[in-house]
Amino acid sequence: MKKTFVLFAVLLALVLGINQSIFAQNEPVLYFCEKYGSDGEIGVSDRFTTGYLTVMVKCDYALDLEDCSIQFDKYNTRSKKFEYYKKFSYVVEPDMKYIYFAKNDESDMKFEEPGFYRVFLLDDRDKTVASALIEIID
């Protein structure tokens, strides 16, 4: 009786699970490129040399953000933890689904040191909207 119940439970789980999709990353997606311009995204990667980069965020729905920020946390190899590195504030339109964050007059979105960074898009309450990892090399 026990074996029949377990077999039935496993089969039911398999049948119900067939219709569900599993995605590696949920929306929105944060990623990086060398620059964004009239030709679109140039040099998309997750590994770059030191210097200025553009942070991209793409979503199928409006992000509903106005005041937001991009925060860099750098991996400390001694403590084996990510530590706060820099933060940049931005004002965007709530209906935006596709945003690029780049160097402007008020920010210096520059990765100056090689290492691994965790990059966050944060809302006005510092809640994570999207995040990604990036490696900076010399």
List descriptors.
138 residues; mainly beta
Care to describe what's here?
The chain is mostly beta strands. 12% of the residues lie in helices and 48% in strands. The chain is built from 1 helix and 12 strands, in the order αββββββββββββ. The protein has one helix at 2-18, and strands at residues 29-33, 35-37, 40-42, 47-49, 51-52, 54-58, 67-76, 81-91, 98-101, 110-111, 115-122, 128-137. It is globular. The chain starts with a helix and ends with a strand.
Q: Secondary-structure element order, as H and E?
A: HEEEEEEEEEEEE
Q: Kindly, what is the distance between the CA atoms of the first and last residues, rounded to a whole number of angstroms?
A: 64 Å
Question: What percent of residues adopt helix (DSSP H or I)?
Answer: 10-25%
Q: Tell the overall outline.
A: globular
Residues in β-strands, percent: over 45%
How many DSSP helices?
Answer: 1
Brief overview:
This protein is mainly beta. 12% of the residues lie in helices and 48% in strands.
